[in-house]
Write a structure and sequence with these properties.
By secondary structure, the protein is mostly helical. The chain has 13 helices and no strands. It has a single domain (about 5-299), classed as Farnesyl Diphosphate Synthase (Orthogonal Bundle), CATH 1.10.600. The chain is about 75% helix and about 0% strand.
Length: about 300
């Protein structure tokens, strides 16, 4: 593959955003340490690989479908929305990006099959739902407001966290399931705010997410409510001894989320002025599970 083509394909994977997957896998792995007799580093490596490759697949499918629909030519890009701009600059790479998307999904599926061969079919529902979300997110789920809103959270929360927990312990756990709702809520909020700049462009190509269906004000209200729910889940987990008391440090970035929502409303959703707060939202999503994972591992 020519160097310029390779650079474009890599760009469409959106490397700066791929850090969330390994953080969620590490979060799931940290939760497993309370029950796993030994820590299987090979399985952990496979889980990290599957998480990153799955994220690559959903990103490249998104880039491919957004280019084919014409959305990429309509969006006003920000550092956190509007795609990578790789295919509009190099449309000759469109087939290569599709191949990467399909191959990435295939590799994720094969890693899942490996774990099924070891643990049996208990992992199959998570794996199949994850593959379904990856393939359908851009083309179908984005046309259904609440499915679009829930899908990122399911992928990075219960599916990735509980999948990691399962492949390291061989079983599911109610406490870990409850704890997986923290990244679930955070990832939903991450994508929700990142849809604010693309409202008009998304509407033109037939998308129908929360921002389009209910407007910016209600979308930010949903963001605020979700942030409060996330705070309550952390408190509940600490109270029930699911998470160590050090996890309360995650309250600092979570309360920042309430400030982010307030500022975006005060700025009347002027995207250029809201960009620092979209960045803060990304930081919140990454910091909260990282802080909790560190707290677990240090306890």
């Amino acid at each position: 593959m020519p160097q310029s083509k390779l650079a474009t394909v890599i760009k469409t994977t959106r490397p700066p955003f791929l850090i969330l997957a390994p953080i969620c896998v590490v979060y799931g792995a940290a939760l497993s340490t309370s029950t796993a007799e030994t820590f299987n580093y090979f399985h952990f490596f496979l889980a990290i690989t599957a998480g990153i490759i799955a994220h690559v697949s959903v990103n490249t499918f998104n880039e491919y479908f957004d280019f084919k629909s014409g959305l990429d030519m309509k969006t006003s890009r920000t550092p956190f929305s509007g795609g990578s701009n790789g295919l509009p600059q190099h449309p000759e790479c469109v087939s290569a990006v599709l191949y990467v998307a399909i191959a990435s999904l295939g590799i994720t599926f094969l890693i899942g099959l490996y774990f099924v061969s070891i643990y049996g079919f208990a992992l199959v529902p998570l794996g199949l739902l994850g593959c379904l979300i990856i393939f359908t997110y851009t083309k179908w789920l984005n046309k259904h407001p609440f499915l679009c809103w829930l899908s990122p959270g399911l992928g990075f929360g219960p599916l990735m966290v509980m999948g990691t927990y399962f492949v390291l312990t061989g079983s599911y756990d109610l406490n870990a399931t409850v704890a997986s709702f923290i990244p679930f809520l955070l990832a939903n909020n991450l994508l929700l705010l990142n849809q604010l700049p693309d409202e008009e462009a998304d509407k033109e190509v037939g998308r129908k997410h929360i921002v389009i269906e209910y407007g910016k004000t209600k979308a930010v209200t949903i963001y605020t409510v979700t942030t409060v729910l996330c705070i309550l889940v952390v408190l509940l987990c600490v109270w029930l001894d699911v998470l160590p008391i050090g996890s309360l440090l995650a309250m600092l970035p979570l309360f920042l989320g309430l400030f982010v929502a307030q500022k975006i409303k005060q700025l009347n959703y002027e995207i250029a002025e809201c960009i620092p707060f979209l960045g803060a939202n990304v930081a919140i999503t990454l910091l909260v599970p990282s802080i909790i994972a560190i707290a677990i591992l240090l306890t």
